[in-house]
Write a structure and sequence with these properties.
The complex is a heterodimer. Chain A is α/β, with parallel strands linked by helices. Chain A folds into two domains: 88 residues, Methylated DNA-protein cysteine methyltransferase domain (Double Stranded RNA Binding Domain, 2-Layer Sandwich), CATH 3.30.160; 78 residues, Arc Repressor Mutant, subunit A (Orthogonal Bundle), CATH 1.10.10. Helix content of chain A is 39%, strand content 13%. Chain A has eight helices and six strands, in the order ααβββαβααβααβα. In chain A, strands 3-2-1-4 form a four-stranded mixed sheet. Chain A has a two-stranded parallel sheet with strand order 5-6. Chain A is elongated, with a radius of gyration of 22 Å. The model of chain A has no long low-confidence stretch (mean pLDDT 92). By secondary structure, chain B is mainly α. Chain B has two domains: 75 residues, RNA polymerase sigma factor, region 2, helix turn helix motif (Rna Polymerase Sigma Factor, Chain: A, Orthogonal Bundle); 59 residues, Orthogonal Bundle (Arc Repressor Mutant, subunit A), CATH 1.10.10. Chain B is 65% helix and 0% strand. In chain B, helix 1 runs antiparallel to helix 2 and helix 1 crosses helix 3. Chain B is globular. The termini of chain B are far apart. Classes of the chains: A alpha/beta, B mainly alpha. Chains A and B meet through helix 1, helix 2, helix 3 and strand 4 of A and helix 1, helix 2, helix 4, helix 5 and helix 7 of B.
Chain lengths: 206, 162
């Protein structure tokens, strides 16, 4: 028998929960108890908003708008830790250096990198890429050689295409040996912009 | 990219876990401890979950896991409440005596039910679960779940007259 009592239990006046307030309180306590394994925030850039993720070891992920955030989070949750929080203050240093880079005040980044999202040959390729200086370029073939397998230039291309930390690990500095731009995670327009910013490609006026 | 070889655990990012389950758990806790204490219990539930979250071996039934933690937090809160003196030494109510809130009525009565009846009633009406599922969650038989719900309702009817 459904009576008034049952109805009141089902629909009984429940104060509305402030979920955002709860998230804030949990984030604050997680910080105090050192339970934040991955912190993320958005940074503005001339190439659109960037998502920055850091761990206590360093910068682990940087992405352009257009890469679905929930997929990135799921990958980071699985491969590093699901204790991921929006904690902008922990990404301040990375965001400041990105601002300086885009403003032409900083040729190289001085942030520790957390390499846990890359493994095997891809890790060797990206570490070799990280050593290409501002304003220089390399080729897929010579990056493959630097990573220890001169013939694996296709695999090197794949590794660069799935670079989890573009801009800071400068995969935009790797071009085809013939002079073609090759590919880019964020699209060729962005690659062209970065190469112009670094003075490798001429800036077109007008 | 190299694929991960170990079996994946598929735990959602923690903030997502909170977004998905907070409102329902809050309602569950209101049923168990009343509106005044539900938010504290909820925060403690999620903090316990967060501390254990990295070591969790699989994400198969996160909902049931969260309810188990919430139930434990509700029991802790009830114990704290029981220890709290209801009258000060001079015979006056102590300052921290809970103040009745306008929406407290029904839940205050639910809170006074014996623990098993209270949990069964909350599972049945607040969470809208079938008796089999209630039994599974409480670790009792389906029949025992049904009996606890009807005993709880009977007792509630004697107090809630409107």
């Amino acid at each position: 028998m459904t009576d008034d009592l049952e109805r009141r239990l089902r629909t009984g006046s429940v104060p509305d929960l402030d979920v955002a307030g709860l998230q804030d309180a949990l984030r604050r306590r997680a910080g105090e108890e050192r339970l934040i394994d991955v912190a993320y925030a958005t940074a503005d850039s001339p190439l659109g908003p960037l998502t920055v993720m850091v761990t206590p070891r360093g910068l682990v992920r940087l992405s352009y708008a257009g890469e679905p955030l929930d997929e990135q989070m799921a990958e980071v949750a699985e491969r590093i830790s699901p204790r991921i929080f929006a904690a902008p203050e922990r990404t301040d240093e990375v965001r400041r250096q990105l601002d300086d880079y885009f403003a032409g005040r900083r040729p190289s980044f001085a942030v520790p990198i957390d390499w846990r999202l890359v493994r095997g040959f891809a890790a060797s390729v990206l570490r070799a890429t990280a050593r290409i200086p501002f304003g220089s370029v390399s080729s897929y073939r010579s990056i493959a050689a630097d990573a220890g397998s001169p013939n694996a230039y296709r695999a090197a291309g794949n590794a660069l295409g799935s670079n989890p930390i573009p801009i800071v690990v400068p995969c935009h500095r790797v071009l085809h040996s013939g002079g073609g731009l090759g590919g880019y995670t964020g699209g060729l327009e962005r690659k062209r912009y970065l190469l112009q910013l670094e003075g490798v490609l001429p800036t077109l006026k007008g | 990219m190299p694929r991960r070889v170990s079996p994946s655990v598929h735990l959602p990012p923690f903030e997502q876990l909170v977004d998905v389950h907070a409102r329902e758990l809050h309602r569950f806790l209101i049923g168990l401890v009343g509106p005044a204490e539900a938010e504290d219990c909820l925060q403690e539930t999620f903090m316990s979950a967060l501390r254990a979250y990295r070591r969790l071996r699989h994400g198969d039934n996160l909902r049931a896991w969260l309810y188990t933690i919430a139930q434990r937090k509700a029991t802790d809160a009830a114990r704290r409440r029981a220890r709290r003196p209801t009258r000060g030494l001079d015979g006056l109510d102590p300052a921290e005596a809970p103040v009745a809130r306008p929406d407290d009525g029904l839940w205050a009565v639910v809170r006074e039910l014996p623990p098993k009846q209270r949990a069964a009633v909350v599972h049945r009406f607040v969470l809208d679960l079938a008796y089999g599922e209630i039994g599974a969650r409480m670790g009792i038989s389906e029949e025992a779940a049904r009996q606890n719900v009807s005993a709880g309702l009977r007792r509630l009817r004697t107090t809630v007259t409107r």
